[in-house]
Amino acid sequence: MAEKHHQIVIIGAGTGGITVAAQLLRKNKSLDVVIVDPSDKHYYQPAWTLVGAGTFDYKDTVRDQASVIPPGAKWIQEYAEEVDPENNAVKLRNGDTLTYDFLVASPGIQIDLDGIEGLKEAMGKNDVCSNYVDPDYTWEVLQNFKGGNALFTQPATPIKCGGAPQKIMYLADDHFAKSGIKDKTNVIFATPGTSIFGVPEFARTLMNAINRKGIILKFYHKLVKIDGENKKAIYELTATDESNCIITVNDDNNVIHEEIVGTTRLTIPYDMMHLAPPQSAPDFIKTSKISHQEGGSKGWVKVDQNSLQNPDYPNVFALGDVAALPTAKTGAAVRKQAPVVVDNLLKLIAHKEANNKGYTGYSSCPLVTGYGKMVLAEFGYGNKRMSDPILSKLVDTTKEQWSMWILKKYGLPYMYWNLMLRGKA
Ligand SMILES: Cc1cc2nc3c(=O)[nH]c(=O)nc-3n(C[C@H](O)[C@H](O)[C@H](O)COP(=O)(O)OP(=O)(O)OC[C@H]3O[C@@H](n4cnc5c(N)ncnc54)[C@H](O)[C@@H]3O)c2cc1C
User: Fold this and answer.
1) In angstroms, rounded to a whole number, what is the distance separating the alpha carbons of residues 74 and 289?
2) Ligand 1 centroid to 160 CA: how many Å?
3) Of the CATH numbers 3.40.50.300, 3.50.50.60, 3.40.720.10, 3.40.710.10, which one belongs to the domain with range 113-278?
4) 4 bridge partner residues
5) Residue 159 binned pLDDT confidence (cut-offs 50, 70, 90)
6) What are 60-104's pLDDT values in tens digits?
7) How far apart (Å, rounded) are the C-alpha atoms in residues 161 and 414?
8) Among 13, 50, 80, 161, which one carries the catalytic annotation?
9) Strands, DSSP E only, in 19-76?
10) 322 with 282: CB under 8 angstroms?
11) Regarding the domain delimited by 3-109+281-360, which CATH topology (the fold level of the hierarchy) does it fall under?
């Protein structure tokens, strides 16, 4: 039960933790930076969409953690189990305690398979798959699919990369067309949401893709149960007006054979289902004083939306999926958050004010709409479109583009491993 002090403790060696550590040490290699993470592997998760569609090798999304730890940083391969900001301390699972001058929390998001009845039992077998859990199995399911209902869905909780549940659907639809089974397939997207995408410029393009592909789109559908044995998904309808939900039960068009159960529930039978599981902040964060203890952001780390500094504990910062920020949780967001965190940390170390308020909610979602087609949705707080000034001069990123697909498949992975994780982008 040792106690050790470090200048900067970073929790999580994922996208946020490594990017911040690399940028800090690039600016000042004498800093004492320690990174806590139990995982011996680092994952490039954005490519899991492509893995699930059989167009990217899972092996190429994984590297040894040791290979991405920046030179000069110390890696402690252990779980953080408690954050005690009153005492500037992080307790580890092995009983050791790390005290810090500054803390950066970036432990990502937790997958809650217990969050939907029957999900844990159903996941990963009998044609229930998720790119969030095992993208190789998604590809197996797509290849074995022979027609019927292909159901794509997402939970009512916040999730990382909110576009991912629909990206795999567009790719699957394309795959079904190429395999000659499209005419005996119903592709269904059932979501608790009320629109296909929050930013109108991109929503229009996605609605065109949905109409072109003949996808059955169902809003106000909250998944509450999976009956894996009988291949049925049970939804709670969250709108009182049935027409909002697009229900076809009493319709001649009830080709998907959905059934009303009681007054507010509906069952959709599936032949395959892809879903994003419910997600939340890691449990040890939820119970720490650095997180919101109540309200809509309960459980997520409390930060100033522009400086990423905790208002109650000014020596604590958070970035990435764990931070309570009203924007999409993506690696692209981390790329814009990290320099702000680094700048503010260096200012505090130099006994200056942490006055960098430069993060304005940038996030981006590379929405692949088929093999060889992608819409690059970039936006900031308030779902305001926020395009890269150089890129938007060259291409109309609100439209499906082959060039953006090439960026997603080759450009972004290269940039991630070689520039971002090395503190160069
Ligand atoms: C299917 C899928 C598709 C996606 N597509 C895109 C995309 O196209 N574009 C995009 O920008 N983003 C995408 N993302 C999201 C992106 O991967 C995340 O937003 C990003 O990785 C967040 O970085 P992070 O550092 O917050 O978390 P992560 O990168 O997940 O890292 C968290 C780290 O914390 C560690 N950790 C967890 N618990 C503890 C603990 N108790 N103690 C210490 N360490 C801990 C983990 O081991 C992990 O290494 C996608 C994600 C998925 C799953």
Assistant:
1) 26
2) 8
3) 3.50.50.60
4) 98
5) very high
6) 999 999 999 999 999 999 999 999 999 999 999 999 999 999 999
7) 19
8) 161
9) 33-36, 41-43, 62-64, 74-76
10) yes
11) FAD/NAD(P)-binding domain (3.50.50)
